[in-house]
Amino acid sequence: MSIITRNLSKILVQATQNVTTRSLHSSVPALAATSGISERPDTRIRCTLIPGDGVGPELVYSVQEVFKSAGVPVDFEAYFFSEVNPTLSAPLEDVAKSISKNRVCLKGILATPDYSHTGELQTLNMKLRNTLDLYANVVHVKSLPGVKSRHEDIDCVIIREQTEGEYSALEHEGVKGVVECLKIVTAKKSQRIAKFAFDYATKNNRKKVTAVHKANIMKLGDGLFLKSCEEMAKLYPKIEFERMIVDNCTMQMVSKPQQFDVMVTPNLYGNIVDNLASGLVGGAGVVAGASYSANCGARHTYSEAVGKNVANPTAMMLCSAKLLRHVNLPLYGDMIRNAVDQVLKDGKVRTKDIGGQSSTQEFTYAVIHNLKMPGAHK
Amino acid sequence: MFRLTKSGVSGICKNRLFWKKPSRRESSLSDFEIQQRTEKIIKYTPPPMALYGGRHAVTLIPGGGVGPECLGYVREVFKVIGAPVDFEVVEVGPLVDNVDLSDALTSIRRNCVGIKGHIPTHSDDVSAKLKNVAFRNDLDLYVYVLCFKSYAGVRARQKDVDIVIVRQNLEGEYSMLEHGVDTWMVENLKIHTRTNSLRVARFAFDYARKNKRKRVTTVHKANIMKLVDGLFLSVNKEVAKEYPEIEHDDMIIDNCCMQLVARPQQFDVLLTPNLYGNVVTGVVCGVIGGAGLYSGRNYGEHYAVFEPAIRSGASPIAGKNIANPVAMLNASVDLLFHLGHREYAKRIERAIVKTLVEDKIHTADLGGTATSQDVVRNVIDLCLA
């Protein structure tokens, strides 16, 4: 019997796909109207949207559906922006202008080819970061309820400098067969990211900041980064500061990740540690990231799985929840976050990457059905 | 003991140098030394501003008396209008220990901006650090700016007043150099320095130019204190020459107080040394509506701290829901202007004016019957309207 109902519901879901928007409206009747949310009812927030490549568009679509059902007062301004498809892509200036005007952006994954066709060394991602000066990348790695992984109770934040270091895009072949890549570290940017990390820790009641470096080998470059962190630590007497060499750090991360709280890293190490940590809590589909400059915040997923209707929208939804917190709509943010948690905890609807059979669409609907006003279920 | 080898001689030389310039830790510096910015401290370069994704981190120090409730209202208003500000709350208790005080100071050093209530120092010990004064000294907040503009319809002795007071915030009588030979004689050193007088004067004239003010009046008592106030006055006159479009005159403090009570409309910008500024502020506040309406701004080279104009905790009315929240709300408006969030600032400012002038929702200190929460609720409603 249960199989029949399950199949039936699947068919129904498939049938509704064509008329999604309409059926959604009827299935979840105007939640916002009854909930009495009074945060800035007069203003709607505009947010730039970059669906990206691969699974990006599907994931973004799920988020849009969830927003619509929850009645979130956010309007999206979508741009097709892609490096693998340069002819269709919107120009960088337009996108950057839109983001700096709206101050927030939700972004899917931008695929980067391994070889440059135009001979240009900077990728589109890097260009976007540099144009907007999105210097700080924050990845919050947290064990999710109901997602099986090797370790439990992981809760660490990895903060990465992403405008300099190895990503300077300064590579050249001076002599045939010898390639030099310049790794640039500046005091100003190191101080800035160190301060960001400590301020993040202060704001979120975190206890410890770990600087990840390789100053034993790169005494000047990483040395400067480390020194900046040490100096900044003096301004934060209540937060513990510790240093760790990157190789040791990766080992510790795999064997005992619970010891970490906030980590601050230069560019490349950050990238590696981010991916490592995402792997620990259930893969790329469930970890959300955010990038900040002084004036804008862009959120993007950490996902790199490309597929059709099997991708996990968890990361994107957690991203959107963070985005809502950032634009002063914390109630909506909590609502979506709780719904995602609930779906994962129930464990009935799971996408393939975390050991289930459900499609992206089914997961999205499950989340929508679990949308509750915070406090309402108590 | 001294061998005349090369290294030995140089060793002695080093020692001598050391004795000439004893290196002292910052904690052992006197208030006066901190005020005067010994070479050691002035070198300090501030960290980058705490601004991430368009959101500012701001230190919030509730202090004592009505401070906590008023700042609570500010946070409520900010939350409702969605001002992109994250507060870092640092409690500073009234007790003698200076641990949480230094916490608060580091916090402002990190964020560069703070908003605070009054912090009383309950101690009979002469050597105890006065916490309110410590903020200005340690953070080098050399100028205190107060804007007094009458609200029409608010019960007051004088109408149409529009005065800006620019007060030197560090030295003068507040140099913290007091001593007594015995009980029959005590001395307080009043100190003016050229550097500090100069930067306050420059600030005042720059402010006047920027805000299209016509006249700057120096308040002093140079007829009696010919050297100390004389220096302040002469520096002001010197600076005034660089600003030909702004009229400059001076007035003796006693006359100034009388004029302020009798005919305050004649004044534009008042430029005062430390103690006179304090007195004059009190007079103006009393004449145009009391302690609960206006806010003040402390500025230094690197930091800014905002607070209600009258630095007093008003402890007797704390927690009774009758304190006037407008002063602190105005301080928060100043804060938003300072951070560059003009739209949000204007929204709150308009709401405050409308609440006081048109809706006439006044707390007891203005002769009304409304509670603090009534005022705040009305401000919030108007902000959203």
TrEMBL record, chain A:
Keywords per UniProt: Mitochondrion, Transit peptide, Tricarboxylic acid cycle
Gene3D superfamilies: Isopropylmalate Dehydrogenase (3.40.718.10)
Major localisation: mitochondrion
Record-linked InterPro entries: IsoCit/isopropylmalate_DH_CS, Isocitrate_DH_NAD, IsoPropMal-DH-like_dom
GO biological process terms on file: isocitrate metabolic process; tricarboxylic acid cycle
Family designation: Belongs to the isocitrate and isopropylmalate dehydrogenases family.
Name of the protein in question: Isocitrate dehydrogenase [NAD] subunit, mitochondrial
Organism: Asbolus verrucosus
TrEMBL record, chain B:
Cited SUPFAM superfamilies: Isocitrate/Isopropylmalate dehydrogenase-like
Compartments (UniProt record): Mitochondrion
Gene Ontology biological process terms, A to Z: isocitrate metabolic process; tricarboxylic acid cycle
Domain of life: Eukaryota
Xref: InterPro entries: Isocitrate_DH_NAD, IsoPropMal-DH-like_dom
Entries under Pfam families matching the protein: Iso_dh
Domain called Isopropylmalate dehydrogenase-like: residue spans: 57-379
Keywords: Mitochondrion, Transit peptide, Tricarboxylic acid cycle
Primary location recorded for the protein, binned into one broad class: mitochondrion
GO cellular component, as recorded: mitochondrion
PANTHER family named in the record: DECARBOXYLATING DEHYDROGENASES-ISOCITRATE, ISOPROPYLMALATE, TARTRATE, ISOCITRATE DEHYDROGENASE [NAD] SUBUNIT, MITOCHONDRIAL
Family: Belongs to the isocitrate and isopropylmalate dehydrogenases family.
Protein name, UniProt field: Iso dh domain containing protein
